[in-house]
Amino acid sequence: MTLERGASALIFAVPTLGHVNHAIALARFLADWGLRSHLVTAPGMANHLSRVATGIDWSAHEAFDLLFGARRTDGRSHFVQIFDPDHVQAAFSATVELASAVRPALIVAKDFVAPHMAASVLAIPSASYLTDGIGPLVDAKVRQRALPPQIADDFLGLAERLQTLSVAEACLRSPGAGDLILARGYPELDEPPPPWAAARLTHLGALVFDGPDQEIDAWRRRLARSWRPLIYVNLGTVAYDVEPYRRIARGLEALQADVLLVCLHFTEVQLGPLPSNVRLERYVPNEAALSVADLMIHHGGHGGLLSSLQAGVPSLVLPQNTRSSAQGRHAETVSRLGVGLELPAAASSEQITLAAQTVLSSEFRFRAKELASRLAARSEVLQLATGERISQLVRDSTARSAGHNRASPS
């Protein structure tokens, strides 16, 4: 049952292209259930949101800025940054201010902890948004070890002053804070959730946004097929090393195939000379590229995994993030399902050549198309169940609030 018109949600998105697109996908989903979303991220995403977030309210705040790539000069991961007391205080105050203006019935946060803390003070239900599946829940102990003890102590000291200590402790234990845990992906493809998270966990299937329809169509026309297979290469929206791109390009030079290499972070000068069959683009929507691709080479990020599975395109996966086991698990999933192969991050150009030749075979493509059909039907079931749970959570909270107001003396 959808909610009455007028209900709203605040969604807080990590300021990278991929995560902002995930937040847009969630906003569009919530709109189908009667919740109008206001998306919040950092100023660096303003141009992207102006271009693609049609029909979605949004705002950009310095309080939600995180440093990635070349901007991260102190070596602190974004995980450490989100627990820094100065960041938490600023983000907490900004959330309270935004909530007073938007009056949300639900607050959703990807990674950020301050919105959950503010939600508890304001008595607004909150949900965690796990855009990378439930891997972060499974790796919760890794999360605890990654935070310097002094940062953790200072964070808890601030939480105590803000009267949000229990929520802060939950955020330290895992990324699954809040009343609900919304996970992109499929339970069948994820590991079993920890017992403490199972009751609050709900999956969203392949909830994907790659751009406005007119932009997707324009890119499809630009990517007009030749008679040769097309290999789509995308190692994600956060990258630190140029060498994997070079090895992949050299490995694909020997194939009778066209290569679309999407690289947001390195220029053609930084990449060096590229083979004649490689076309370099800074950005292409996944949906457009996958609509014409015969193979996707990616790093095992959850976005690339879901997009390729949804499109029925087989994968060659080279995990890049050694600090997390998620990409390796996704690579194993692709291999286990028979819709692709896994290679190590340091795979040679020769290994990439042989693996790409293998995955381009009709056997892999057939299995990928068959799986995509099954997952499309599964997504509908999962999204219906998740929409019902969100609606019930908001209705229950609204009823409690109304009852409290009636009981309060005038």
Examine the coordinates and then state which fold CATH places here, giving the name of the CATH topology of the largest domain: Rossmann fold
Total number of beta strands: 13
Q: Beta-strand level of the residues, as a percent range?
A: 5-15%
The SS-based structural class is: alpha/beta
Q: Output the strand order for the largest sheet.
A: 3-2-1-4-5-6-7
Helical amount among residues, as a percent range?
Answer: 40-55%
Q: What is the mean predicted local confidence, pLDDT?
A: 89
Coarse shape: globular
Low-confidence stretches: none
Tell me the name of the CATH homologous superfamily of the largest domain.
Glycogen Phosphorylase B
User: In the CATH classification, which architecture of the largest domain applies?
Assistant: 3-Layer(aba) Sandwich
**Helical stretch tally:** 18
Radius of gyration: 22 Å
Q: So what's the CATH class of the largest domain?
A: Alpha Beta
Q: Terminal Cα separation, in Å?
A: 33 Å
Biggest sheet: strands, sense, closure? Answer: 7 strands, parallel
Number of domains: 2
Q: Your description of this structure?
A:
The protein is α/β, with parallel strands linked by helices and 410 residues long. The protein has two domains: 233 residues, Rossmann fold (3-Layer(aba) Sandwich); 147 residues, Glycogen Phosphorylase B (Rossmann fold, 3-Layer(aba) Sandwich), CATH 3.40.50.2000. Helix content is 50%, strand content 13%. It contains 18 helices and 13 strands. It has a seven-stranded parallel β-sheet, with helices on both faces. Helix 8 packs antiparallel against helix 9 and helix 14 packs across helix 15. The chain is globular. The two termini are 33 Å apart. The model has no long low-confidence stretch (mean pLDDT 89).
